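ugh ok so i messed up the first submission bc i forgot one of the chains. this is the corrected input, ALL of the components this time, i swear. 418 residues overall. if the numbers dont match what u have on ur side tell me asap before i send this to the collaborators (the ones from the other lab, u know who)
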Amino acid sequence: MLLLAMVSEQTWAAGARGAVKSTLAPLEAAMTRLAGNVDRVTAVFGDVSTLRAENQRLTAADQALRRQVVELNAAAKENATLRQALDFERSYGHHMVAAQIVGRGPDGFSRTLEIDHGTADGVRPGMIVTTGAGLVGRVQEAGPHGAIVQTLADPQSRVNVFLSKSGLQGTVTGGPAALQLEIEHALGVSASSGEWALTSGVGGGYPRGLVVGELASITHLDSSTSDPALVAWVNDPAAISLVLVITDFVPS
Amino acid sequence: MKRLAIAALLLATVLVQVTWAPRITVAGAFPNLALVAVIAITWTAGVRQGMAWACLAGLMLDLTADGPLGPHAVALLAGAYLTGFWVRNLDRETLLHPVVAAAASTAVYSAVLVLADDLLGLPVPPPAIAIQLVVAASVYNAALMPIVLGVVRKLHSPVTRRPEPV
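and heres the new structure output, hopefully the right one now
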């Protein structure tokens, strides 16, 4: 087995390895569809009991939304300026391929997703994967009709980001529960909860301006050169079913 | 025929693991159904059969994971071997034994998987995160063990039980 592992790890075996791995992709896609159907059926039983609680929650949410509308109107002008500054046009101007998620990593050590598009569709290792909400991760391996994506939740994942309001920079790493962020100190500026973390493009691994998540909590450490923080990822890896692969961005 | 049925069952288990199991994450860990199934088979049918099925299930898991083929198979073999060693040296079986064996085998499986990845030069998680995930996965798999063991015993018994000589 170890011999097989060592042989299949070689670069010249990458094509064969990808082709072999693609064999399970159709079965995983069928199982994912089945899972979706079962979820819909079981949801009916849960619906009746949750409707009352949902009604109460919606009433409270309605009041909160009224308040938010007022706040959003005030923030609209600031938002327009921010949008221009963050150069969203550039990040969304890339060519993308839509792919369906057919499976997830088999163990907790590597948080990966398997998609149903591979080299035959122009997907290559290193390409960036997003959703409409924001960054998902990077293509780790690609076979002819499937690819494995390393998500931001993977403990090995590293993304350089900047914060939308304070402009502070930091590095987001994966974790089992939430994304960890180390924010570098800057004189006279401090980060606060609620700020958005976006890819900074530093290092050339990711294009600038892709949304990563919202700063959920931050611990200010005066004695350190950086502040640890938690980021609420915009994508729920257990819930997303469709992703976009940016095919014309080449990481440096 | 029976072997084909077990292989199909293991394939279904692996597919469920990579499609459904990550939806029921607790403390960052989700159940490793293939590992629990292999431990239950080893507990019921013995270490030789357990290790043979561990090899097959491991290769199936490797097909769905990133990196080379083999690390999951090696890790499952280690888990199955520990379970086989445990059941061989058992005087009297209680429900606690397979449950604790599942937790211990999960820890061994995880340690071997991380070690194999490290040996192959693949990235491994930081120790603190790895320990947190291993503990959570061990508890999760141990909790599932009685159910899976019951299912495997039910499937195993009608085929293996031979008629008493007259």
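quick check: Helices of chain A lie at 2-9, 14-22, 25-86, 88-92. that seems consistent at least. The interface with chain B takes residues 1-9, 17, 20-21, 23-24, 27-28, 31-32, 35, 102-110, 112, 114, 140-141, 148, 150, 155-156, 175-177, 237-238 of chain A (CB under 8 Å).
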